[in-house]
Amino acid sequence: MFQNKALEYLKKMKFPTIASRRTWPFEVLHRVYVELQESTPKDLLEKEFWCSSASPDEWWSKRTSFAKSVAVMSMIGVTFFVYLIFLLIFLSNSKKKKKIFKVCNWTWRSTFR
User: Fold this and answer.
1) C or N: which end of the chain has fewer Cβ atoms within 10 Å?
2) pTM for the structure as a whole
């Protein structure tokens, strides 16, 4: 789907379709992403879990295990991110530390809004 929509927009812009994806205009990629995001139902995962389950108990089990695995992976990602930031701070000089703190503050603010 993504490829077809992107090629359609590239043809409209008269951009060579054989070009590498890295050279595609950002506007095309963004427009295709937004269109696909809008056309995707919000409850897609919920419907998949429900349709693939034989009983409500099985559905609840699948849903719970998925939520737990997402939570665990989030915590692992945050822990890894914090570890890398502390490592960068420890290994860098004072000018780099100020930049790292600015990036960290922006990242944490945008992540936990």
Assistant:
1) C
2) 0.54
